[in-house]
Amino acid sequence: MRLRRALLALLLLIGPAAAVAAAEPDPFALILHALDYLAVDYPGAVKDGRVLDEGEYAEQVEFAASVRGLIGGLPARPERAALQATAAGLLAAIRDKRPGDEVAAISGDLRRRIIDLYDVRVAPRQIPDLGPAAADFTTHCAVCHGATGRGDGPAAKGLNPPPADLTNQARMGEHSLFGLYNTITLGIKGTAMTGFAPLSETQRWALAFYVSTLGTPPADRERGAALWKGGTGRGELRDLRALVMATPKEVAARAGDDGVAVLAYLRGDPGALAAVRESPLDLSTRLVGESLAAYRQGDVARAHQLAITSYLDGFELVEAQLSGVDAGLKSQVEAEMLRYRTLIQSRAPREAVETEARTILAMIETARQRLDAARLSPATTFSSALVILLREGLEAILVLAALVAMLIKAGRREALRYVHAGWIAALALGAITWVAASFVVTLSGASREVTEGVTALIAAAMLLYVGFWMHRHSHAARWQSFIETRVQAALSGRTRWALASIAFLAVYREAFETVLFYQALWIEAGPSGRLAVVGGFGAAALGLALLAWLILKMGLRLPVGWFFGVGAGLMAVLAVVLAGKGIAALQHAGRLPVEPLDLPTIPSLGVYPTWQGVLTQLALVVLILTAFTYSRRRPRHAA
User: Where is the domain boundary, 253, 275, 297?
Assistant: First the structure.
């Protein structure tokens, strides 16, 4: 408590002018440290509306007033007035002797908003190496704090206040690594604790990590290591930023003793974070931040590319999982990320882009919380695995089943080998592409979307060709004589290769993306959820096989004319759907412009709210209706 309280004098000495004076300490560090102090120590000064310690309470009031003044000196932003109002509310709550939980909540909210609004860097640039930290502690700290951090160093005698006992777990449990770093950097005015700004930033961060471990028994860190390797804490302490902002007290409240043990392990061995593959949501969050920073610097092209990558390599990979938990939230995030990219492309005012970025980050965090909560249920993991394959495989299985039924109905079973060769080649190439992207080259999400978009458009054209062919012969097939004399020749070599191409395109456009989605789900599910992933995949595969069987059975029972007519309609609908998805994929990859349209998103129909996609689909509908109408008016004896 004394360590935090003594910072008051430093704040009052520096004053609000520090916010604009380049030679003074970072004003953000002062404000955030002050808010930490208020959140932690206020309950010790006031309880049930009664002041317990007059001196400490007076310091709390002065501290809150200093925070309000420092915020007033921060760079001008439209949202700064709201921050000042919140700071005024914090001061009023303290003066009114409001409950500690209320003051802590206001302090925490204000801290979070300042970090988000000003993109305050609260984590080290790289994972600290604690190797040299012990020597730095001996050189700079042990003289007062003692060799083991108990506050019993040779210079400790006579110091008032005495050096802090860094092994006191209750005391250290209130401090985050970021708070310790600020204390090491700023020092404490009025005490023997001086700032160590002359040390490099890397050294100060390493010292903060090292100091945080002094009161932790080795057995706790060993238990934390075992828990971490088993998957515990991967959501709570997902990256370096989360690690340095967490306090043992907060982690204990959310995750219990196991969470505290994992935190202790990571504080002593932060390199363990590097062994964990960055999750799609973490990647998405990081790249949105980098995109916003690039936009602020005037680099619009880089900001737009980072925004694209944030969606394609990040959020898109968890869409299937999120759909099983909160489909509405999934659609909202997707729409907001598209709007964010559009704002960047149109060079919108910085404030509008910043507001949109904060909206996205908040929604991604909500998505993370929903997925983390749902991950406790094997049923959610199972349903996510089920949805991935059903969603990605439905269109392909419809196309394949319709093609196979058509060939059987036409009495041309020998042509089935073209269809089978097409989808088998697609699966093989999809596997090769995945292996190459994973181990040989880096295939970006944009490259994947371009491949999917181009493939979808080609497949749409092929489906139109076969659909028109089927529609022509749905009329000719009404005459038995036509079936007997012409159908055997109707499937020309050109048509057979078209069938093989459609089978290939229908499967390949989904194969690689499906593998990536399962790869992301496999990582997110962890060891305990992988049986559910396999089960969901198996159930979806069984469902698709059943669907294909039903299409074949129903199709073969239809009269020839009806079958070819229905088949032509199915091919036409799928062509329109694929065209819409192809345009959307190329827009996601940044290869086509995006002009938003006030329409709902209907992925199952390939409808996405942009003028480019909707107009393309409408043009295809007009073309199909015109062609089918013209075909119906042709003489009935025409082939």
Answer: 275
